[in-house]
Design goal:
Elements lengths: L1 E3 L6 E3 L10 E8 L7 E2 L3 E7 L5 E4 L2 E4 L3 E6 L6 E4 L8 E8 L6 H4 L5 H9 L4 E3 L1 H16 L3 H16 L4 E3 L3 H4 L8 H13 L6 H8 L3 H12 L3 H19 L4 H7 L5 H12 L3 H11 L4
Parallel strand pairs: 2-4
Antiparallel strand pairs: 1-2, 3-10, 5-8, 5-10, 6-7, 6-9, 8-11, 11-12
Helix pairs in contact: 2-4, 3-4, 6-7, 7-8
C-alpha cells in the first residue's frame, strides 16, 4: 500500500493482489465490519456486498447509504472509493470483489459488434455504476457460481458472461460526476460533444444558452430540447453538476478557501454555491472536505 499525495488530503493507493499472469483476481469474504480506508487503484473493480444495510458507500464525489445488497462497477483508474460501516449492524456480511485490468478485453475485441454493450458499460463505469436490486438478483447465481468455479479457464468464461449480462441492464445509475473523476465525457452526438467540451473549458465563466446553441448550430429552444434528449439532463443541470464536481475535487485536492473555490468554479455568490452543494451532495462544502479527510488513512 502506498499513499497518493495531494496538497490537501492523502488517499491510499492500493496495491492489488492481481498478477500479470492472471485475467482477474476474486476475493469472496464473510465479514462483520468495514474498516478499509478510502483508496484507489488502477485496476477495474466489480464489488458485490450482501447483508449490509446501513453501510455508507462513497465513489468519487457521490455518497449514499446502501440497502441489503449492493453491486458497483468502477473502471476509472484512481477513482477514490470506500465502503464504511455507517449504521450497519449486520455480523454476516458477504463481499465479493473482482479486480481486473483493461487489457483483459483489448480494444480489438471490444470494437466488435458482439461486445458493443460491454464496451458501453465499461465506458460509463469510469464514473462508477451502481446496479439495481433487480439486476443483482438476476445475476447473483452467475456471480456466486464464478466465486466457486475451480477451473480457471471456465472461470474466465463465466466472468465474461457475467459482464455481458450486466451490460444489458438498463436500470443502472452513474455515481461520481465526470468532472470530479477528471474524465472527458463523450456522446454519440458531435453537437453535444462540442458543447460539453466548451463547458469543460469555460465552466468558470458565464455560460449563455444562446452561445451554446450557436455552437450546436441550432436555435436556443431546439437546442435545449435536443440536449435534454441526448443527455437526460437539462443544460442548467449539466452545468451545475459539472461545476460542483470540479468544486468537490478542489475541496480535497487543494487547501483553497471555500469562497475562493466557489468563484473559481463559476458560481456567482457563496450562498448560492452552498445551497446547491447541500442540495446535490447532502452536506455543505466544509462537511464534504472534513468527511473526505476522515476517510483517509493516516500513517
Amino acid at each position: 500500500m502506498t499513499l497518493h499525495d495531494s496538497s490537501a488530503i492523502s488517499v491510499m493507493q492500493e496495491i492489488t493482489p492481481l498478477s500479470d499472469s492472471d485475467c482477474f483476481y476474486l476475493a469472496d469474504r464473510h465479514k462483520s465490519s468495514f474498516d478499509f480506508p478510502i483508496h484507489s487503484h488502477p485496476e477495474f473493480e466489480l464489488n458485490f456486498i450482501a447483508n449490509a444495510a446501513g453501510v455508507r458507500r462513497t465513489v468519487g464525489d457521490h455518497s449514499e447509504t446502501i440497502s441489503d445488497y449492493d453491486l458497483v462497477l468502477i473502471t476509472s483508474p484512481n477513482l477514490e472509493h470506500v465502503w464504511e460501516q455507517g449504521e450497519c449492524v449486520s455480523k454476516n456480511i458477504r463481499e465479493i470483489t473482482i479486480q481486473f485490468t483493461s487489457d483483459i478485453l483489448p480494444n480489438t475485441l471490444l470494437s466488435k459488434n458482439q461486445f458493443h454493450s460491454i464496451r458501453q458499460m465499461l465506458e460509463r463505469a469510469r464514473c462508477g455504476l451502481a446496479f439495481s436490486q433487480l439486476t443483482i438478483m438476476q445475476i447473483f447465481g452467475k456471480l456466486d457460481n464464478l466465486s466457486r468455479q475451480q477451473r480457471a479457464f471456465h472461470a474466465v468464461l463465466c466472468f465474461f458472461e457475467l459482464l455481458y449480462e450486466l451490460s444489458l441492464a438498463d436500470d443502472v445509475r452513474t455515481l461520481s460526476s465526470s468532472s470530479f473523476a477528471r474524465i472527458k465525457t463523450s456522446s454519440e452526438s458531435r453537437r453535444v460533444d462540442k458543447v460539453q467540451q466548451y463547458i469543460a473549458s469555460h465552466f468558470n465563466e458565464e455560460i449563455r444558452l444562446e452561445l451554446l446553441a450557436d455552437i450546436a448550430g441550432m436555435t436556443p429552444v431546439a437546442f435545449s430540447r435536443f440536449f435534454h434528449q441526448r443527455t437526460g439532463r437539462t443544460l442548467s443541470e449539466y452545468i451545475i453538476d459539472y461545476r460542483l464536481g470540479v468544486a468537490s475535487r478542489m475541496l480535497i485536492d487543494t487547501t483553497k478557501m471555500i469562497a475562493e473555490i466557489c468563484y473559481d468554479c463559476g458560481f456567482n455568490t457563496l450562498s448560492n454555491f452552498n445551497r446547491l452543494f447541500r442540495k446535490h451532495k447532502e452536506c455543505t462544502p466544509t462537511e464534504f472536505r472534513e468527511n473526505f479527510s476522515k476517510k483517509k488513512i493516516i500513517i
